[in-house]
């Protein structure tokens, strides 16, 4: 009989049998899968678990603080927060090609995670939020060691000299099952049912070179959009929604003054599998509100556009 409670109990027994009294390390991203692993392992092995949360500076508004509030303060999980914004910005300076940005971001994550893991000298296990669809996908796409890591290049790969053994308690579960378990373990519904967020984060939602000033503007615009989607009961009617920063300037007027500021694109899609998607037909009144709020409240943005491109041919992300 499948109930979240049974699965949790079985997983707890299995994890305890596997790792014994060893220390376990987990890269916590704030996404659903790694969050559920953190909550599950915390329940199974308590302080034997240490999570490493890398704040890349490419996260959404207040996201780093929220992750810490939920895990460290609310659940009592041991979390090391690494404030790596300046390292990411330095590594990304002058890099504008999307795939190159992904590589830089992924490699830096591995470096930072590796540094933290090296400090935890008693760690014997690496926990990962691999779920069943990841297993199938990477079995088809890759062979060898690559199948052990999450396919979405969130994590660029495991360090070559890695001596940690893997523990992957969600390996047999589908996403909806992972969500049910997350709720049962006490994770907030907002976290469990949040839209997907790419591993490279805002790094691929700022077109071209990434700059802190761009990321700050984008975070504000994105937060307004998401807040209004919730307020109008539209958040769960779309599959993914976000703002994109366009580093081009456009002319506007405000009061007596002339503005020459950046452009924000708003994207919302409906999809089942993220392989194809249609742009969400959000109400005009709603789009009007978003545009007004962003232009009035985000100093530095003078124009808002709505992306009406389907996938294919356009991808969901702009990069
Ligand atoms: P695209 O843009 O390819 O996106 O239509 C399909 C889904 O994948 C997400 N996405 C990524 N996720 N690392 C990730 O973890 C990435 O580099 C990446 N690129 C796209 C995207 O947000 C959408 O849900």
TrEMBL record:
An annotated GO cellular component of this protein is: cytosol
**Catalytically driven reaction(s):** XMP + L-glutamine + ATP + H2O = GMP + L-glutamate + AMP + diphosphate + 2 H(+)
Q: Keyword annotations for this protein? A: ATP-binding, Glutamine amidotransferase, GMP biosynthesis, Ligase, Nucleotide-binding, Purine biosynthesis
Stretches assigned to the GMPS ATP-PPase domain: 2-194
The pathway it acts in is: Purine metabolism; GMP biosynthesis; GMP from XMP (L-Gln route): step 1/1
What this protein is reported to do is described as:
Catalyzes the synthesis of GMP from XMP.
- Record protein name field: GMP synthase [glutamine-hydrolyzing]
Species in which this protein is naturally found: Methylovulum psychrotolerans
Report the gene name.
guaA
Q: Which residues of the full protein are shown?
A: 210 to 528 of 528
């Amino acid at each position: 009989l499948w109930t979240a409670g049974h699965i949790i109990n079985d997983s707890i027994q299995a994890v305890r049998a596997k790792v014994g009294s060893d220390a376990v390390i987990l890269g916590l991203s704030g996404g659903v899968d790694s969050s559920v692993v953190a909550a599950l392992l915390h329940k199974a092995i308590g302080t034997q678990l240490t999570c490493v949360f890398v704040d890349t500076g490419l996260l959404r508004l207040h996201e780093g603080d929220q992750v810490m509030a939920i895990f460290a303060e609310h659940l009592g999980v041991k979390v090391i927060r690494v404030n790596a914004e300046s390292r990411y910005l330095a590594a990304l300076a002058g890099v504008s090609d999307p795939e190159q940005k992904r590589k830089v971001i992924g490699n830096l994550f591995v470096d930072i995670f590796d540094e933290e893991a090296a400090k935890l000298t008693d760690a014997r296990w690496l926990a990962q939020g691999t779920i069943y669809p990841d297993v199938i996908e990477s079995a088809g796409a890759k062979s060898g060691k690559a199948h052990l890591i999450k396919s979405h290049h969130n994590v660029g790969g495991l360090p070559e000299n890695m001596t940690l053994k893997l523990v992957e308690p969600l390996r047999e579960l589908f996403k909806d099952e992972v969500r049910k378990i997350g709720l049962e373990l006490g994770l907030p519904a907002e976290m469990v049912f949040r839209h997907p967020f790419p591993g490279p984060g805002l790094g691929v939602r700022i077109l071209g070179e990434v700059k802190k000033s761009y990321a700050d503007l984008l975070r504000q615009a994105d937060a307004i959009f998401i807040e209004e989607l919730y307020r109008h009961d539209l958040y769960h009617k779309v599959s993914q929604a976000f703002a994109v920063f366009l580093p081009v300037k456009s002319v506007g007027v405000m009061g007596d003054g002339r503005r020459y500021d950046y452009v924000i694109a708003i994207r919302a899609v409906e999809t089942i599998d993220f392989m194809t998607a249609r742009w969400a037909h959000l109400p005009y009144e709603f789009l009007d509100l978003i545009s007004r709020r962003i232009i009035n409240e985000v100093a530095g943005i003078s124009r808002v556009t709505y992306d009406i491109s389907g996938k294919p041919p356009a991808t969901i992300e702009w990069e």
